[in-house]
Amino acid sequence: MQSEVIKVSNLDLTFETNDGPVHALKNVDLKINKGDFVSFIGPSGCGKTTLLRVLADLDEPTDGDVTVNGVSPRQARESRAYGYVFQAAGLYPWRNIAANVRLPLEIMGYSKEEQLKRVTKVLDLVELTGFEKKFPWQLSGGMQQRASIARALTFDADILLMDEPFGALDEIVRDHLNEQLLNLWKSTNKTICFVTHSIPEAVYLSTKIVVMSPRPGRIVDIIESNLPSERPLEIRDSKKFTEISQRVREGLRAGHIDD
Fold first, then answer.
1. Residue 9 β-bridge partners
2. DSSP state, residue 128
3. What digits encode the pLDDT tens for the residues 222-240?
4. In terms of residue numbers, what domain contains 212?
5. What is the mean pLDDT of the chain?
6. Left, alpha or beta for 55 (phi > 0: left; psi -120 to 50: alpha)?
7. What is the pLDDT of residues 35-78, one digit of tens each?
8. Are residues 65 and 162 in the same domain?
């Protein structure tokens, strides 16, 4: 039996703004098990990132319950239960790649020996060995995002929260990073929550796809993928892949109709 790591029940979130309240999320219910790769997809402004931020204790819900590893998001954050990868790589230009990646370890007080050991390990995982002394401006956009992922992996959290990390990259680079991310997920068995606007990306990567409606964000459909664990890019031409993609599109359309 799979163990449950994230549970969201009756979640509502309303932001108070100068122009009045903005209802971002409504009646969200979701369970995520250990080792799941879950993609959140929906139109811009539907609350995908907001939901991720709630899990990370960066936004606080107005109503409902959220647990991460059986505790509140705040307790999960304080126990370093997750790593977070933002849309932009967010690397400091004056620090080389190794220094950028080890920054969380410096803040947490790890010894220099342990920092070196962990940085070496995660750079190897994201295939950046040999680029330790390079600076961010010397790397491509895709390599910078891989460094950002490595930084989120340094303290070996079981959960990885990823907010559309490949959205600004061209299709060729994105395909390559999708393959690398799948390999990384399979080799580490981490639980990944991944925000995307791309139907092919969501279907290719995920064991579970959460389709969301326009604001206020509701879950329209939760699709369990029956694709094999080995997924070459060519699987996107298969009948199964097309069928899952079509169900995602239908869910997105249904969300607009309901709205």
1. 65
2. -
3. 999 989 989 999 999 999 9
4. 4-81+158-258
5. 92
6. alpha
7. 999 999 998 888 899 999 999 999 999 999 999 999 999 999 99
8. yes
| 200 three-state secondary structure | helix
Residues 107 and 196 both lie in one domain: no
Distance (Å, whole) CA 156 – CA 149: 11
Strand 208-212: give its sheet, edge to edge: 82-85, 159-163, 191-196, 37-41, 208-212, 219-224
Separation CA 189–CA 185 (nearest Å)? 6
For the chain, how far is it from start to end, CA to CA, in angstroms? 37
Cα separation, 191 vs 146, whole angstroms: 18
Residue 204 and residue 225: Cα distance in Å, rounded?
Answer: 9
Report the distance separating Cα 214 and Cα 209, nearest Å.
Answer: 16
DSSP letter (8 states) at residue 3? P
The tally of domains found in the chain comes to: 2
DSSP 238: S
Tens-digit pLDDT profile for residues 67-106? 999 999 999 999 999 999 988 889 999 999 999 999 999 9
The pTM of this model reads 0.91
